[in-house]
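Supplementary Methods. Inverse-folding protocol.

Structures were first reduced to a discrete structure-token string of length 419. This string, shown here, constituted the complete conditioning input.
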């Protein structure tokens, strides 16, 4: 016998019932996914819309991760100027001149003016070259947020994206820079699902208007790790959503010793490493920049010295092999192969005694080389088989040790720097 409390629901009644989705009520009728048949793709897709090197690209989100004060903003402003003035200031190729909008959520308008002026002065960019191409704003709280929370703590869309869209359409913007990411929203920064919604606003903005979006971001506390995208502050979904991510890191003490930079000056040099470039080939060597102070000539009676503001210039570390010709390289090898006066041979081991340290031959014959550079030369020769370690009896201790010998067949014979 059927239960009188229940009856069969007709198909018409079922179709009329609201559908539940993810715990909520979805009143809309499904329309499908708009899928395409790959067999119908008879034409090639257009190339990606690169703007500057592998840093900014239309329809994608970029980010630069780094500690506060490391030089992120100084570098980014030079890159923005490169696009607006159609003149590379950072060694990156300008694919096309682009209209840039800087939305600063950390500095005020006057500080933006100082930063831009410093970059213009140092790189000799005339104000007229930016007219109609570079726009900036420090809107403060009045512009709203990308996302915020309501009275119950639930995330909701703010007004910032809509306000930015007004400028995109009005000025025909190609790149929007929102600095820093952490101040673009007021939702819990460690909640992946919520931060994912914030970044979705950015990716939707990029796709809708065919623009590049850049959101520099702070890193979490701790030791800096060049190229580590996981050091980004807060939820990892922010970096997951970005496609072009780099890290900015101050020069380490070891790097300073290698390059011959004084300890007091090393933080004026920053390295930029690819942390996540997953729409093109990533990796490669770090790119280096030197932070320079620029006088703005804005002195007043009250402040007779005026301001000095940072900008960046491209810097190339000295190469360990620079200025070493074939004759000098062979002279070094001959000295190493001859060994020491007491019959001992030189060693390439990192912790060998000073007398047997092969790197000392390099610095004696090339005094401009640092210890780190000299060690790198010895290390390369051992790796390439130019120097070969062979066991012999130490004439002093009468113990078997390993010393370096030269493979004459592999001696440098051209001006190659890696032999």
């Amino acid at each position: 016998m059927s239960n009188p409390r229940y009856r069969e629901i007709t198909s018409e009644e079922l179709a009329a019932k609201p559908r539940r989705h993810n715990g909520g009520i979805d009143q809309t009728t499904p329309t499908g996914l708009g899928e395409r048949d790959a067999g119908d793709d008879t034409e090639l897709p257009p190339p990606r819309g690169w703007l500057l090197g592998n840093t900014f690209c239309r329809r994608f989100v970029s980010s630069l991760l780094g500690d506060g004060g490391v030089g992120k903003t100084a570098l980014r402003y030079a890159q923005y100027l490169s696009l607006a003035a159609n003149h590379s200031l950072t060694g990156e190729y300008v694919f096309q001149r682009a209209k840039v909008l800087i939305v600063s959520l950390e500095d005020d308008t006057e500080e933006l003016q100082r930063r831009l002026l410093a970059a213009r002065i140092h790189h000799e960019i005339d104000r007229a070259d930016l007219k109609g191409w570079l726009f900036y704003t420090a809107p403060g709280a009045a512009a709203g947020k990308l996302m915020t929370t309501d009275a119950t703590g639930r995330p909701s869309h703010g007004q910032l994206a809509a306000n930015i869209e007004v400028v995109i359409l009005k000025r025909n913007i190609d790149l929007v820079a929102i600095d820093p990411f952490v101040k673009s929203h007021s939702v819990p920064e460690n909640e992946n699902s919520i931060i994912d919604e914030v970044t979705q606003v950015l990716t939707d903005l990029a796709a809708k208007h065919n623009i590049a979006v850049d959101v520099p971001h702070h890193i979490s506390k701790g030791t800096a790790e060049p190229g580590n995208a996981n050091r980004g502050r807060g939820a990892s979904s922010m970096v997951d959503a970005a496609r072009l991510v780099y890290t900015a890191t101050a020069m380490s003490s070891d790097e300073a010793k290698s390059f011959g930079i004084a300890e007091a000056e090393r933080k004026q040099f920053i390295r930029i490493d690819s942390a996540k470039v997953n729409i093109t080939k990533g990796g490669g060597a770090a790119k280096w920049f030197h932070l320079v102070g620029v006088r703005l000539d804005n002195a007043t009676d009250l402040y007779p010295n005026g301001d000095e503001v940072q900008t960046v210039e491209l810097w190339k570390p000295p190469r360990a092999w620079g200025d070493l010709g074939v004759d000098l390289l062979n002279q070094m090898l001959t000295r190493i192969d001859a060994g020491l006066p007491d019959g001992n041979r030189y060693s390439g081991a990192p912790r060998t005694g000073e007398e047997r340290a092969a790197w000392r031959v390099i610095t004696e014959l090339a005094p401009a080389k640092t210890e780190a550079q000299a060690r790198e030369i010895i290390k390369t020769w051992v790796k390439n088989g130019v120097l070969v370690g062979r066991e012999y009896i130490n004439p002093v201790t009468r113990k078997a040790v390993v010393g370096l010998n030269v493979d004459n067949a592999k001696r440098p014979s051209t001006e190659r720097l890696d032999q």
